[in-house]
Protein backbone atom coordinates (compact mmCIF):
# COMPACT_ATOMS: atom_id res chain seq x y z
CA UNK A 1 0.00 0.00 0.00
CA UNK A 2 2.93 2.33 0.62
CA UNK A 3 3.90 2.21 -3.06
CA UNK A 4 0.34 3.08 -4.10
CA UNK A 5 0.21 5.88 -1.55
CA UNK A 6 3.50 7.33 -2.76
CA UNK A 7 2.49 7.32 -6.41
CA UNK A 8 -1.00 8.71 -5.68
CA UNK A 9 0.49 11.26 -3.26
CA UNK A 10 -1.87 10.31 -0.42
CA UNK A 11 -1.54 8.59 2.95
CA UNK A 12 -1.56 4.82 3.48
CA UNK A 13 -4.82 5.24 5.42
CA UNK A 14 -6.41 6.95 2.41
CA UNK A 15 -5.34 4.07 0.17
CA UNK A 16 -6.84 1.58 2.61
CA UNK A 17 -10.17 3.42 2.72
CA UNK A 18 -10.30 3.75 -1.07
CA UNK A 19 -9.59 0.05 -1.65
CA UNK A 20 -12.17 -1.01 0.93
CA UNK A 21 -14.84 1.41 -0.30
CA UNK A 22 -14.97 3.15 3.08
CA UNK A 23 -16.13 6.75 3.66
CA UNK A 24 -13.87 9.62 4.62
CA UNK A 25 -12.37 10.78 1.31
CA UNK A 26 -13.51 12.69 -1.75
CA UNK A 27 -14.71 10.91 -4.89
CA UNK A 28 -11.85 12.37 -6.95
CA UNK A 29 -9.29 11.04 -4.45
CA UNK A 30 -10.94 7.62 -4.37
CA UNK A 31 -10.93 7.38 -8.17
CA UNK A 32 -7.28 8.51 -8.37
CA UNK A 33 -6.18 5.90 -5.82
CA UNK A 34 -8.09 3.12 -7.61
CA UNK A 35 -6.65 4.11 -10.98
CA UNK A 36 -3.11 4.09 -9.57
CA UNK A 37 -3.74 0.75 -7.89
CA UNK A 38 -4.99 -0.77 -11.14
CA UNK A 39 -2.00 0.62 -13.04
CA UNK A 40 0.33 -1.01 -10.50
CA UNK A 41 -1.37 -4.38 -10.90
CA UNK A 42 -3.48 -4.37 -7.74
CA UNK A 43 -6.37 -6.82 -8.21
CA UNK A 44 -9.59 -4.87 -7.63
CA UNK A 45 -11.69 -7.75 -8.87
CA UNK A 46 -11.42 -10.12 -5.91
CA UNK A 47 -14.60 -9.76 -3.94
CA UNK A 48 -15.48 -10.79 -0.41
CA UNK A 49 -18.89 -12.12 0.59
CA UNK A 50 -21.18 -9.71 2.39
CA UNK A 51 -23.04 -10.97 5.46
CA UNK A 52 -26.39 -9.26 5.11
CA UNK A 53 -29.81 -9.35 6.69
CA UNK A 54 -31.22 -6.60 4.47
CA UNK A 55 -30.29 -5.38 1.00
CA UNK A 56 -31.37 -2.09 -0.50
CA UNK A 57 -32.23 -1.61 -4.16
CA UNK A 58 -31.61 1.98 -5.23
CA UNK A 59 -32.94 3.35 -8.51
CA UNK A 60 -32.27 6.83 -9.85
CA UNK A 61 -35.43 8.92 -9.83
CA UNK A 62 -35.13 9.39 -13.60
CA UNK A 63 -35.86 5.64 -13.93
CA UNK A 64 -38.23 5.40 -11.01
CA UNK A 65 -41.65 5.28 -12.71
CA UNK A 66 -41.64 1.50 -12.62
CA UNK A 67 -45.17 1.16 -13.98
CA UNK A 68 -44.04 2.73 -17.26
CA UNK A 69 -40.45 1.45 -17.20
CA UNK A 70 -40.36 -1.98 -18.84
CA UNK A 71 -36.63 -2.44 -18.25
CA UNK A 72 -35.97 -1.72 -14.57
CA UNK A 73 -39.12 -3.32 -13.17
CA UNK A 74 -37.89 -6.82 -14.15
CA UNK A 75 -34.44 -5.95 -12.73
CA UNK A 76 -36.13 -5.02 -9.45
CA UNK A 77 -38.07 -8.29 -9.50
CA UNK A 78 -34.84 -10.24 -10.04
CA UNK A 79 -33.29 -8.56 -7.00
CA UNK A 80 -36.36 -9.29 -4.91
CA UNK A 81 -36.42 -12.99 -5.87
CA UNK A 82 -32.69 -13.40 -5.25
CA UNK A 83 -33.01 -11.80 -1.81
CA UNK A 84 -35.92 -14.07 -0.92
CA UNK A 85 -33.99 -17.15 -2.06
CA UNK A 86 -31.06 -16.08 0.15
CA UNK A 87 -33.32 -15.37 3.16
CA UNK A 88 -32.38 -11.71 3.04
CA UNK A 89 -34.82 -8.86 3.56
CA UNK A 90 -35.27 -6.43 0.66
CA UNK A 91 -36.14 -2.76 0.46
CA UNK A 92 -36.47 -0.33 -2.45
CA UNK A 93 -36.02 3.41 -2.70
CA UNK A 94 -35.44 6.02 -5.38
CA UNK A 95 -32.63 8.55 -5.22
CA UNK A 96 -32.28 11.93 -6.92
CA UNK A 97 -30.08 14.82 -5.84
CA UNK A 98 -26.91 14.10 -3.82
CA UNK A 99 -28.15 15.85 -0.66
CA UNK A 100 -29.71 13.48 1.85
CA UNK A 101 -28.44 10.24 0.30
CA UNK A 102 -26.46 9.26 3.41
CA UNK A 103 -29.48 9.91 5.65
CA UNK A 104 -31.69 7.84 3.35
CA UNK A 105 -29.30 4.88 3.39
CA UNK A 106 -29.04 5.09 7.18
CA UNK A 107 -32.83 5.12 7.42
CA UNK A 108 -33.09 1.99 5.25
CA UNK A 109 -30.80 0.10 7.70
CA UNK A 110 -29.30 -2.04 4.95
CA UNK A 111 -26.12 -4.11 4.92
CA UNK A 112 -25.47 -3.74 1.19
CA UNK A 113 -26.79 -1.94 -1.87
CA UNK A 114 -27.66 -2.87 -5.45
CA UNK A 115 -27.78 0.37 -7.45
CA UNK A 116 -29.39 0.18 -10.89
CA UNK A 117 -29.19 2.49 -13.88
CA UNK A 118 -27.22 5.63 -14.61
CA UNK A 119 -25.82 7.63 -11.70
CA UNK A 120 -24.24 11.08 -11.78
CA UNK A 121 -20.79 11.07 -10.17
CA UNK A 122 -21.96 13.30 -7.30
CA UNK A 123 -24.86 11.03 -6.36
CA UNK A 124 -22.72 7.90 -6.67
CA UNK A 125 -20.04 9.49 -4.47
CA UNK A 126 -22.65 10.06 -1.76
CA UNK A 127 -23.79 6.44 -2.01
CA UNK A 128 -20.20 5.17 -1.68
CA UNK A 129 -19.48 7.48 1.25
CA UNK A 130 -22.34 5.85 3.17
CA UNK A 131 -19.90 3.00 3.73
CA UNK A 132 -22.05 0.07 2.56
CA UNK A 133 -20.92 -2.54 0.02
CA UNK A 134 -22.23 -1.53 -3.41
CA UNK A 135 -22.87 -3.42 -6.66
CA UNK A 136 -23.85 -1.47 -9.76
CA UNK A 137 -26.32 -2.87 -12.30
CA UNK A 138 -26.49 -1.37 -15.82
CA UNK A 139 -23.74 1.08 -14.92
CA UNK A 140 -19.98 1.10 -14.30
CA UNK A 141 -17.60 3.19 -12.21
CA UNK A 142 -13.92 2.78 -11.26
CA UNK A 143 -13.36 0.45 -8.33
CA UNK A 144 -16.97 -0.71 -7.93
CA UNK A 145 -18.26 -4.18 -8.83
CA UNK A 146 -20.88 -4.18 -11.57
CA UNK A 147 -23.25 -6.32 -13.60
CA UNK A 148 -23.92 -5.27 -17.17
CA UNK A 149 -25.49 -6.56 -20.35
CA UNK A 150 -23.10 -7.47 -23.16
CA UNK A 151 -24.03 -4.21 -24.87
CA UNK A 152 -21.20 -4.17 -27.39
CA UNK A 153 -21.93 -7.67 -28.67
CA UNK A 154 -25.68 -7.03 -28.77
CA UNK A 155 -25.33 -3.84 -30.78
CA UNK A 156 -22.83 -5.51 -33.07
CA UNK A 157 -25.22 -8.42 -33.74
CA UNK A 158 -28.15 -6.06 -34.39
CA UNK A 159 -26.18 -3.92 -36.86
CA UNK A 160 -24.60 -6.91 -38.55
CA UNK A 161 -28.07 -8.43 -39.01
CA UNK A 162 -29.33 -5.28 -40.76
CA UNK A 163 -26.29 -5.24 -43.03
CA UNK A 164 -26.80 -8.93 -43.84
CA UNK A 165 -30.40 -8.28 -44.92
CA UNK A 166 -29.11 -6.01 -47.70
CA UNK A 167 -29.62 -2.57 -46.14
CA UNK A 168 -27.42 0.16 -47.57
CA UNK A 169 -27.80 2.98 -45.00
CA UNK A 170 -27.97 1.66 -41.42
CA UNK A 171 -28.59 4.51 -39.00
CA UNK A 172 -28.60 4.52 -35.20
CA UNK A 173 -30.98 6.32 -32.86
CA UNK A 174 -29.16 6.70 -29.55
CA UNK A 175 -29.49 8.40 -26.16
CA UNK A 176 -27.31 10.36 -23.74
CA UNK A 177 -23.60 9.68 -24.14
CA UNK A 178 -22.95 9.67 -20.38
CA UNK A 179 -24.86 6.40 -19.96
CA UNK A 180 -22.48 3.43 -19.80
CA UNK A 181 -24.78 1.03 -21.66
CA UNK A 182 -25.56 3.56 -24.39
CA UNK A 183 -21.87 4.29 -25.01
CA UNK A 184 -21.23 0.57 -25.35
CA UNK A 185 -24.12 0.11 -27.78
CA UNK A 186 -22.79 2.92 -29.96
CA UNK A 187 -19.39 1.21 -29.86
CA UNK A 188 -20.87 -2.08 -31.06
CA UNK A 189 -22.79 -0.32 -33.84
CA UNK A 190 -19.68 1.51 -35.04
CA UNK A 191 -17.58 -1.66 -34.93
CA UNK A 192 -20.07 -3.59 -37.05
CA UNK A 193 -20.13 -0.83 -39.66
CA UNK A 194 -16.34 -0.58 -39.65
CA UNK A 195 -15.95 -4.34 -40.10
CA UNK A 196 -18.34 -4.14 -43.06
CA UNK A 197 -16.38 -1.25 -44.57
CA UNK A 198 -19.29 1.18 -44.09
CA UNK A 199 -19.19 4.93 -43.39
CA UNK A 200 -20.57 5.70 -39.93
CA UNK A 201 -20.19 9.32 -38.84
CA UNK A 202 -23.28 10.86 -40.44
CA UNK A 203 -25.89 8.24 -39.52
CA UNK A 204 -26.25 8.70 -35.75
CA UNK A 205 -29.12 10.74 -34.27
CA UNK A 206 -29.02 11.39 -30.53
CA UNK A 207 -32.24 11.75 -28.59
CA UNK A 208 -32.06 14.96 -26.53
CA UNK A 209 -34.84 14.36 -23.99
CA UNK A 210 -35.52 11.08 -22.15
CA UNK A 211 -39.27 11.04 -22.80
CA UNK A 212 -41.61 9.46 -25.33
CA UNK A 213 -41.79 12.86 -27.05
CA UNK A 214 -38.01 12.96 -27.16
CA UNK A 215 -38.01 9.54 -28.85
CA UNK A 216 -40.60 10.75 -31.37
CA UNK A 217 -38.60 13.87 -32.20
CA UNK A 218 -35.41 11.87 -32.68
CA UNK A 219 -37.22 9.36 -34.90
CA UNK A 220 -38.59 12.21 -37.02
CA UNK A 221 -35.14 13.77 -37.37
CA UNK A 222 -33.63 10.44 -38.39
CA UNK A 223 -36.29 9.72 -41.02
CA UNK A 224 -35.90 13.25 -42.40
CA UNK A 225 -32.28 12.58 -43.41
CA UNK A 226 -31.51 12.85 -47.10
CA UNK A 227 -30.95 10.29 -48.38
CA UNK A 228 -33.18 8.52 -45.88
CA UNK A 229 -31.78 5.49 -44.00
CA UNK A 230 -33.27 2.17 -45.05
CA UNK A 231 -32.54 0.62 -41.66
CA UNK A 232 -32.49 1.86 -38.06
CA UNK A 233 -30.86 0.33 -35.01
CA UNK A 234 -32.35 1.98 -31.91
CA UNK A 235 -30.53 1.89 -28.58
CA UNK A 236 -33.65 0.55 -26.85
CA UNK A 237 -37.05 -0.84 -27.76
CA UNK A 238 -38.99 2.25 -26.75
CA UNK A 239 -37.03 4.30 -29.27
CA UNK A 240 -37.41 1.57 -31.91
CA UNK A 241 -41.18 1.53 -31.46
CA UNK A 242 -41.18 5.32 -31.89
CA UNK A 243 -39.41 4.83 -35.24
CA UNK A 244 -42.06 2.33 -36.34
CA UNK A 245 -44.83 4.76 -35.36
CA UNK A 246 -43.13 7.62 -37.21
CA UNK A 247 -42.77 5.43 -40.30
CA UNK A 248 -46.50 4.73 -40.21
CA UNK A 249 -47.30 8.44 -40.02
CA UNK A 250 -45.09 9.10 -43.05
CA UNK A 251 -46.51 6.23 -45.09
CA UNK A 252 -43.27 4.26 -44.94
CA UNK A 253 -43.54 0.48 -44.77
CA UNK A 254 -41.65 -1.51 -42.13
CA UNK A 255 -39.61 -3.45 -43.10
CA UNK A 256 -39.98 -2.90 -46.88
CA UNK A 257 -38.91 0.76 -46.79
CA UNK A 258 -37.20 0.92 -43.39
CA UNK A 259 -36.06 -2.04 -41.29
CA UNK A 260 -36.01 -1.48 -37.52
CA UNK A 261 -34.16 -3.25 -34.70
CA UNK A 262 -34.32 -2.40 -31.00
CA UNK A 263 -32.57 -3.50 -27.80
CA UNK A 264 -33.90 -4.99 -24.49
CA UNK A 265 -36.84 -7.15 -25.71
CA UNK A 266 -39.50 -5.49 -23.57
CA UNK A 267 -42.98 -7.03 -23.62
CA UNK A 268 -44.30 -4.51 -26.16
CA UNK A 269 -41.67 -5.60 -28.71
CA UNK A 270 -43.46 -8.87 -29.49
CA UNK A 271 -46.89 -7.21 -29.76
CA UNK A 272 -46.02 -4.37 -32.15
CA UNK A 273 -47.08 -4.50 -35.80
CA UNK A 274 -44.87 -5.79 -37.24
CA UNK A 275 -43.16 -7.58 -34.36
CA UNK A 276 -39.96 -5.80 -33.36
CA UNK A 277 -36.61 -7.47 -33.97
CA UNK A 278 -34.55 -6.80 -30.87
CA UNK A 279 -31.65 -7.84 -28.67
CA UNK A 280 -33.02 -9.84 -25.75
CA UNK A 281 -31.65 -8.93 -22.32
CA UNK A 282 -32.15 -11.14 -19.26
CA UNK A 283 -33.37 -8.24 -17.14
CA UNK A 284 -34.30 -10.34 -14.11
CA UNK A 285 -30.93 -12.04 -14.50
CA UNK A 286 -29.18 -8.70 -14.12
CA UNK A 287 -30.92 -8.23 -10.76
CA UNK A 288 -30.18 -11.77 -9.60
CA UNK A 289 -26.52 -11.45 -10.57
CA UNK A 290 -26.29 -8.15 -8.68
CA UNK A 291 -27.43 -9.83 -5.47
CA UNK A 292 -25.22 -12.87 -6.05
CA UNK A 293 -22.18 -10.69 -6.67
CA UNK A 294 -22.89 -8.90 -3.39
CA UNK A 295 -23.67 -11.93 -1.23
CA UNK A 296 -21.96 -14.90 -2.86
CA UNK A 297 -19.02 -13.89 -5.10
CA UNK A 298 -17.21 -16.86 -6.57
CA UNK A 299 -13.54 -17.43 -5.65
CA UNK A 300 -11.22 -15.11 -7.64
CA UNK A 301 -14.21 -13.66 -9.51
CA UNK A 302 -13.66 -10.45 -11.41
CA UNK A 303 -15.68 -7.47 -10.21
CA UNK A 304 -17.31 -6.83 -13.60
CA UNK A 305 -19.89 -9.42 -14.64
CA UNK A 306 -21.23 -9.39 -18.21
CA UNK A 307 -24.59 -11.05 -18.95
CA UNK A 308 -24.92 -12.52 -22.49
CA UNK A 309 -27.61 -11.37 -24.95
CA UNK A 310 -29.29 -12.90 -27.98
CA UNK A 311 -30.77 -11.46 -31.16
CA UNK A 312 -34.52 -12.14 -31.58
CA UNK A 313 -35.54 -11.72 -35.22
CA UNK A 314 -39.14 -10.67 -35.92
CA UNK A 315 -41.02 -9.01 -38.76
CA UNK A 316 -39.54 -5.51 -38.50
CA UNK A 317 -36.28 -6.53 -40.20
CA UNK A 318 -37.07 -9.00 -42.95
CA UNK A 319 -34.56 -9.02 -45.79
CA UNK A 320 -34.86 -6.27 -48.38
CA UNK A 321 -36.06 -7.37 -51.82
UniProtKB/TrEMBL annotation:
CDD domains: HTH_LacI (cd01392), PBP1_LacI_sugar_binding-like (cd06267)
Start and end residues of each HTH lacI-type domain: 1-42
Top-rank taxon, per record: Bacteria
Keywords: DNA-binding, Transcription, Transcription regulation
One Pfam short name: Peripla_BP_3
Listed GO MF terms: DNA-binding transcription factor activity; transcription cis-regulatory region binding
SMART domains on file: HTH_LACI
PANTHER family: HTH-TYPE TRANSCRIPTIONAL REGULATOR GALS, LACI-RELATED TRANSCRIPTIONAL REPRESSOR
Protein name, UniProt field: Substrate-binding domain-containing protein
Amino acid sequence: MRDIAARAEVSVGTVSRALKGQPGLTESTRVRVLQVAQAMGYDLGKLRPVKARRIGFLLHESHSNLASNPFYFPVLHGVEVACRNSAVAFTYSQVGEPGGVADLIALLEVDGLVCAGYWESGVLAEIVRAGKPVVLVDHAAPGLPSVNTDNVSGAYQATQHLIATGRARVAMLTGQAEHHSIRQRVEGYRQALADAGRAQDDLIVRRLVDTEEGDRQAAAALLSMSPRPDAVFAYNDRAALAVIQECAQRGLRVPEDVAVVGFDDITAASYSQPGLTTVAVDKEGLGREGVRLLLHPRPSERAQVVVPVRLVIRGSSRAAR
